Amino acid sequence: MSESPDPASPFEGTRTALIAACEEMEHRLKGLTDSHGRIADEVHQVRKLGKRLRGGLAVIGEAKPCLRWISVIGRMLGGARDTHMRTKTWKGLGAESTAPGSAEAAITGMLDLEADAAIRRPPQGVIDWSLAAVDQVKGRLQACTDEELASRAAKGAGQLKRRLKKRLKRALERVQNEDFHECRKAAKAWLGGMSLVAPSLSLPGKEETEKLAGSLGDENDLEVLATWLTTHGFTQATAKSAWKILRKRQEKIRRRSISLIRKDLLPVLAEKD
């Protein structure tokens, strides 16, 4: 009686998927030099792809310099998108005012001005460095075999899941901003990386993790806005009403994040695969 063939590994396409992601990033980076006014949207797509690629590289346990290179690309290109998100977050608070002389009107004006000024093509030097970094990563991937990267991905997937669980538990224990930020990064790495290297694999807690990542993203947007306000002199003493709304919104979202971690995500991740 002949033996049935072993089932295909969900990670067998890892090498192909990661190299394709590198090539797509190269294509998108080159396109930034001719975006016809769509800079913010194009940069957003590059950064989204970069996060997935970085997650995929984390799954295979790629060297930290490679992960940093991809992160730096996102940071160098992020100015326009970050400015756009600060403006969107501010207007979402509902704290705007058109009253002459109000701090809120001044904040709106400055944010709009920065958003308009940020819509420009990245310097060619940034594009060139980014392309060189992606090419280095692609070269390392091409030097590996399909079997090697599939094996590394199968091992790394479990490690990323355990890292996420560890950071979620730490956030509940300490309840500090930096811990929730680390949770967000771990969630993005696991979701993005697995969607790239094993798109057919059913992930436990995927829906719950996506909800948490969204909630933590909302928290991060508010904290970024808070930093901007403080840096530009709009402290709680200067813009009391706006800060009251912002802090109330932060507290509400933090409670939602904690509930998602404690009641929804950790119980699912604790189950045996």
Write the layout of secondary structure elements.
Elements: H1 14-31, H2 39-59, H3 64-93, H4 103-117, H5 124-142, H6 146-174, H7 177-197, H8 206-231, H9 240-270
Summary?
The chain is mainly α and 273 residues long. It has nine helices and no strands. The radius of gyration is 21 Å and the shape is flat.
Task: Please give a structural write-up.
The chain has 273 residues and is mainly α. It has nine helices and no strands. The protein has helices spanning 14-31, 39-59, 64-93, 103-117, 124-142, 146-174, 177-197, 206-231, 240-270. Helix 3 (64-93) crosses helix 5 (124-142). The longest helix is centred in the last third of the chain and has 31 residues, at 240-270. It is flat and about 65 Å long.
Low-confidence stretches: 1-6
Number of strands: 0
Mean of residue pLDDT values: 90
Strand content: under 5%
Distance between the termini: 31 Å
Major sheet, described briefly? none
> Counting H and I runs of at least 4 residues, what is the number of helices?
9
What proportion of the residues is helical, as a percent range? over 70%
Coarse structural class:
mainly alpha
Give helix and strand order, one letter per element, not per position: HHHHHHHHH
Shape: flat
Multimeric state: single chain
Radius of gyration equals: 21 Å
Question: Key terms for this structure?
Answer:
mainly alpha, 273 residues, disordered N terminus, single chain
